[in-house]
Input
Amino acid sequence: MVLIDETHDPARRSWVASANGHPDFPIQNLPLGVFTPDGEEQPRAGVAIGDMILDLAAAAEDGLLAGDAALSRAVEALADGRLNAFFALGAAPRRALRARLFALLSEGNPRSMAAEACLRPASACAMQLPARIGDYTDFYVGIHHATNVGRVFRPDNPLLPNYKHVPIGYHGRASSVVVSGTPIRRPNGQRKGSEETAPSFGPCRNLDYELEVGIWIGPRNALGEPIPVSQAAEHVAGFCLLNDWSARDIQAWEYQPLGPFLAKNFGSTISPWVITPEALAPFRIAQPPRPQGDPAPLPYLLDNKDQAEGAFEIELEVLLLTPGLRERGLAPHRLALSSTRHMYWTVAQMVAHHASNGCNLQPGDLLGSGTISAPEASGCGSLLEMTRGGKEPVRLASGEERRFLQDGDEVLLRAHARRQGFASIGFGECRGAVLPAPQPAA
Ligand code: MN
Output
């Protein structure tokens, strides 16, 4: 599955000048997304290259994407203006498209003049959700997050006994997944503080973010037909960043016994660009060995190849921009630095587990990894962990303090993959600002 080829050559440059050395979108990345040029309404598929977007429909019209059967299938599927049909095709058409785009955008390509006419400045386009999301499932594979959160409630026994046997997850809500840049309204909800004798309804008091990676599902499995873990990677079309906004006070009151509900489904923000498995191939690593004494995964979750190369080394970052920082012209405050290496289960294990009972996954379904915290205090993927439930506030250069998010705060997630001998690539931003809660109905 993990193929390194010409498209990963760090020496290759693009005739799109801003791509060379771009922190997110050099020619070695080529993420796909859906955009709307300013003033237009029809969503279009595109690929990010530096500060520009190559309009794929326009490039196809100009004959720049003509080729073999695999490439033709990819181009046909992309005409839809959403990526679902493209996701459904799987690896071969996706690779054919990558190879063609790499050649087309490479320095020295004789058709660069024609291709240049299909470029749009990203700043003059609005990014859209890349696909119609049929279902959204959120996992809980960040073991340090699970431990930190568990410790708040059960100091002696932070991890529940199932954690190391089952990739824990719950069904989230697809309708409220929004693209980066969409403001998030603080939810109203029912909450009951520990000192309160009765619950009340009103604005969430403990609004939080969660640093997660999103996984886009590609080819479907039929209802009733599980996906073997050895084939699970082939059902993944790509990756994004995901902020699983969480209302901690609402969550604490509502979650027993069925788990997250209204504390989570008022909004989840994703980054717009789909980073392909091919772009991430150089950043695959072996799944870090389980600590001594941990159980081995059950056979349906264990595949040697997946263990050898199914994890990723991707740096994850959370930044906070508050009204105070903004007013003083100060930079966003980095709240946390973490890595995808802290996932206790691989993506293939999550997919295989999800389908192990015959549940059908569909192109454009979105999986969340769960909050990915690092073991260090500087790597907490949520404020719940970082401030120990609001007890230890974060101090900012503006003089402000935060226990949880306030109205006007903006949360930015970023991700970068780096490896000696390869071009670094990034995911682009996943950002969202908090708006005040609507006035609750009397
Ligand atoms: Mn989550």
The chain has a mean pLDDT of 96. The domain at 6-128 is CATH 2.30.30.230 (SH3 type barrels.).
